[in-house]
Write a structure and sequence with these properties.
The chain is mainly beta. The protein is built from no helices and eleven strands. β5 and β6 form a beta hairpin.
Length: 117
């Protein structure tokens, strides 16, 4: 059962901003960890950012200072604010949920981000 739904992707030019959103269902949202992954064409899926249930955040080095992950437990939403976006950020972005050190292997549709001039 896929319990996350990603949205907010689209086409954007370099330097612009975009915010992705992820909603989760079927869980006590506030107890779960979340992560954003992305997969570029011909590349492996890679971790972009995590946010733990208590709010601690971690980022891949490639996005530090440009991307911000956040969560709204009341709205059961996880966001990824992407600023100063770059062409190599083009990918399908996926939301993943986890508990403790375990992560779900149920991947949703993802949301496509295309960055080009």
């Amino acid at each position: 059962q896929v319990q996350v739904v990603e949205s907010g992707g689209g086409s954007v030019q370099p330097g612009e901003s975009l915010r992705l959103s992820c909603t989760a269902s079927g869980i006590v949202f506030s107890n779960y960890n979340f992560a954003w992954f992305r997969q570029a064409p011909g590349k492996e899926r890679q971790l972009v950012a995590t946010i733990i249930s208590g709010g601690r955040k971690n980022y891949a080095d490639s996005v530090k200072g440009r991307f911000t992950i956040s969560r709204d437990n009341a709205k059961k939403t996880v966001n990824l604010q992407m600023t100063n976006i770059k062409p190599d950020n083009t990918a399908v972005y996926y939301c993943r949920m986890g508990y403790g050190s375990a992560w779900s292997n149920n991947w949703g549709q993802g949301t496509q981000v295309t960055v080009s001039a």
